[in-house]
Amino acid sequence: MTVSVVGIGLIGGSLAIDLRKRGFADRVIGVDTNIQHQNIAKLCGIVDETDTLENAVEKSDLIILCTPVDSNCRLLPVILDMIGGTTKVVTDMGSTKASIARAAKDHPARGRFVAAHPMAGTEYSGPLAAHSKLFDYKMAIICDKELSDPDALETIKEMLNVLNMRIVYMDSASHDVHVAYVSHISHITSFSLALCVLDKEKEEENILTLAAGGFESTVRLAKSSGDTWAPIFIENAEFILEVIDTYIEKMHIFRQMIVKKDAEGLKKLMDEANRIQKILN
Length: 281
Description:
Layout (H helix, E strand, L loop, with lengths): L1 E5 L3 H12 L5 E5 L3 H9 L5 E2 L2 H7 L2 E4 L3 H15 L5 E4 L5 H7 L8 E6 L20 E5 L6 H13 L3 E5 L1 H29 L3 H7 L2 H7 L6 H10 L1 H23 L3 H11 L2 H5 L1
Parallel strand pairs: 1-2, 1-4, 2-3, 4-5, 5-6, 7-8
Antiparallel strand pairs: 6-7
Helix pairs in contact: 4-5, 7-11
């Protein structure tokens, strides 16, 4: 199988490495508008070659969209136009799904598209961040499976199995609600905490001196790329705003308890929050 990876960053590059290493892809073609990313991907052996989108689609059996979510939405109809009437398959790795579902909804080649979201990543970006085993034993979500052709769905399931991922199924709207709570809000709070500290601590030396493990782990996601996350926040705005409002409400409750010096109330809140351990363990 020849696979094209459109967007050779952390996700696309890591996919390329393991799909070829594990025998799923015989050849990987990289597509990226960033010339530096193209050169790094070739020099590091992440891809076998780079090419234009049109040439890559023509030469490939599977096309994987790994660009920011707004770009995925723009590119998908173009690619479906190109692969209509063939057995080629296209999938995306985006963190939002309702918008790309709408982009594909009425296309005659809709069945050749499988919407997928691997729940994996790091705070780093670009091809130099790509590495093997990024996806191992992580969750992968396939959305709206009933809208994909059976053979296209099987191809993506096989790909995710090769990556050692656990597959679950959702509809697009439910997916976007859930990831707003378990993924997107984590990034927003991390960015916000970083801005808060930078605003109050003008001396970088103080941050470095006093930063402990809790701060480092909480603010880690603030290193994430704005090019990736700004489109995600916009695409999933409806649900993210709902989560932000809930988060602010909880912060306000903590604030009230601290103002009142209500130690018992604070401990009760934290005991309730501790229940998350049972879910995550």
